[in-house]
small monomeric GTPase (Lottia gigantea), 197 residues
Amino acid sequence: MEVTKIVVMGRAGVGKSALVVRYLTKRFIWEYDPTLESTYKHTTNIDEEQVYMEILDTAGQEENISRESYVKWADGFILVYSITDKQSFDDVLQIKQYLDDVKRTNTQCVLVGNKVDLLHDRKVSYDEGESIAQEMSAAFFETSVSDGGEDIIDVFHELHREVKRRKMMEIKGRRRSSAQQVRHVFNRMLNKIGNGT
Ligand SMILES: Nc1nc2c(ncn2[C@@H]2O[C@H](COP(=O)(O)OP(=O)(O)OP(=O)(O)O)[C@@H](O)[C@H]2O)c(=O)[nH]1
């Protein structure tokens, strides 16, 4: 079975817990313990394949010493901001930088602008979100966890697909480099024989 490990990150209050709970239970829970950090285990079907997901919902407030270890643990990240909170949008860029530094690669992320039901209070435009998502090579969604919708399922499933694609590319890359090594050793042997050494 495919296994995908996901971490949900973003500033306190943007709706990370609500998003995860909505995805898992299809329900919206208004209040959630903000200090809580929880891991959920979930089996689902994506593109006719069984997928086992582990989802870590981080608490936005804490200064977390374990942050580095769960970043290393994860395959992909859901970065959440609220369209009503510019600071949360700026935070997402910093988080992404931190992730790339820890993982020493362009980390696989999906960007989520939440709370689109509060349109009258919008501080971050759709275009701004889309443009930084492009910079991150991340899929982009605007959601309302309170209103719900299919797009919340897509957030998680799209991340799984990206992670899977990435893993397959890495395997291919590794195969290619070991084939190159074999060829290299073989050529050296042939040269030695050719030189009579
Ligand atoms: N209007 C609106 N409110 C939302 C939405 N999503 C979450 N909220 C509310 O925003 C508040 C924060 O939601 P949480 O899910 O606790 O946010 P969080 O990011 O997990 O917060 P921390 O755990 O403190 O990091 C709660 O009162 C939610 O009910 C949404 O789409 N629209």
